[in-house]
Structures are given as structure tokens and as C-alpha cells.
Amino acid sequence: MTRQVRAFLTVVALILVGAVSSILTRYYDQLPNDTRPLPALAAGLPASNATARQDFALRIRARFPVGSDERALMLELWAEGFDRPGQNDGRHWASLERHDLVCSKAWTVTWTADDSGHLTAVEGTYIPSCS
Are 68 and 6 members of one domain? Predict the structure, then answer.
């Protein structure tokens, strides 16, 4: 193999590596991320969407009953991988989302608390969506 052919093949290989890296970087966020295990609050829900919604709501109300500490709720949600809590007009929320190639799933916890940091209301919402 001549020096020119080796040089040409090296350039082609570098271009291919660059192209593949660019494509992977561009579409990384669209790759499935469901390979991570679900946190305890979201794991093990029934296959039926209606039942799963009810079970998640019950699970959240049982784990964080009205009157419990808001800070404990926020710390546990953060430790379980839920996003930073949002707030609007005294109502707080934190969500966890998972996606695969066709479906997405979202678990959201919403709550209100009094001035002393105790929960006055708490709800859990599970929303599966497949296109």
C-alpha cells in the first residue's frame, strides 16, 4: 500500500469518526434513558394506566400525609431524582420524566404548605404518553 493511499484512508477514517461523533452528540438527548432504575416512589406501578395513576396518587398521599414536613418531602423527591421544585401562587411541584423511542412517562408531585412548613395538601399525578 502506497503512502498516498494510507494518507487518504487515514483522512477518510477521521472524517467518518467526526461524522459519527457529531451525529451522536446531536441526537444524544433523544436516545432512550429508561435504562436507569425508577426510584421507589415511581417503581412497581401496575401496567394498567388508570390503576397506575390511582396507585401513584395513593402512594404519594400515604408517604407524605397532610401535616407532614414540607422539607422532608422536598429532600426525598430530590434524592429520588425528581427535578428541583417549582412554585406558582403558593403551589409547589416536582417532576420526574422518562422517555424511550415511542413513549414518555411523567410523575409529578404537587403540594401546598403552611407558614410553619407543614403540608396542607399533596397530590401525585402519573401521565404516560405514547405516540
Answer: no
What are the cell numbers at 108?
Answer: 409529578
What is the rounded CA–CA span in Å between residue 96 and residue 104?
A: 11
Residue range 22-31, pLDDT digits in tens: 665 555 555 5
Q: In the chain, which ranges are continuous DSSP H helix?
A: 3-27, 49-63, 70-79
Q: How far apart are CA 85 and CA 91, in angstroms?
A: 10
Answer yes or no: are the C-beta atoms of 87 and 70 closer than 8 Å: no
Name the pTM for this structure: 0.72
Residues 6+ apart with CB under 8 A from 97: 104, 105, 106, 107
Number of domains the chain contains: 2
C-alpha cell at 26: 446531536
**Residues 19, 82: one domain?**
no
Give Cα 88 to chain centroid, integer Å.
Answer: 21
